[in-house]
Amino acid sequence: MKATTIDGKAIAAKVRAELKERAATFAATAGRKVGLAVILVGENPASKIYVRNKVTACEEAGIVSSAYHLPADTPECKVTELIEQLNADKHTDGILVQLPLPEHMDEKRVLSHISPRKDVDGFHAVNAGNLLLGNGCLAACTPQGCIELIKSTGVRIAGKHAVVVGRSNIVGKPMAMLLLQNDATVTVAHSKTADLKSITRQADILVVAVGKKEFITGDMIKPDAVVIDVGMNRVDGKLYGDVAFEQAADIASFITPVPGGVGPMTIAMLLSNTVTAAEQHA
Ligand code: NDP
Predict the structure, then answer these.
(1) Measuring from atom 3 of ligand 1, which residue has the nearest CA?
(2) Distance (Å, whole) CA 33 – CA 61
């Protein structure tokens, strides 16, 4: 039997409707709307689309978004000055720097200037550290979205063997931490992992964040696994995941499509973090 496709768009729409209510409640009590500042440096076409989507999503949720579009040759110190101004701005609850930054900038250094309280991407070392310690924090959006998608299936995470393929700071590592917090037994695989297939085939829950088109094939999947495909690989103008969808769908019980799976949830979780940041520091 074919796997059930997890409808990320529909689940994200539900989350966004709930957030709209929370944002309205905040506005009624605080006397101002929740505010998100988005900083874009340069002309990367994909980044421009992502920023536009985020701004539109904010508007729909009743969040005020301010987009700061700076030229590609802006010195790093000007970007960090802007971040410091926004850190001090009472109407800005969340600050997002769209990545990648131009090559002359040190991304880690730039991001470290964002106040952890306003770090709605959850990339700051303080938030990453709190996630590791199991403290409340603004956690990275994509992994949070993946957890919601897994929970939407009704499959219990506790006690399951979850395998995360990829160990980036923005997806793989925080994903592993969130699965651990949800009582899964977690294995993290990466480019140096030996015999990857023997590991992915043990996964009750398989999360793939590698960045290689259809890298995970059907024979790498355990029967009835829940498969979450984070990958976004644009080839000849078409978007592909990291999982060979048709093959995987013949074996898994639930699977996310690309597009329409993890992507919409990432934006929903960004809005969620922004509303949470506002509520915590009103
Ligand atoms: P990175 O390039 O930062 O990390 C990729 C990871 O994959 C690394 O840990 C790397 O291992 C691992 N890897 C590479 N080759 C192999 C291999 N042959 N076997 C096992 N592991 C391997 O990517 P990101 O984590 O930033 O993103 C991953 C994908 O997710 C991309 O397609 C990206 O576009 C997408 N993405 C989607 C989002 C969404 O909203 N849907 C949000 C963020 C990302 P090593 O560490 O050893 O190099």
Answers:
(1) 168
(2) 10
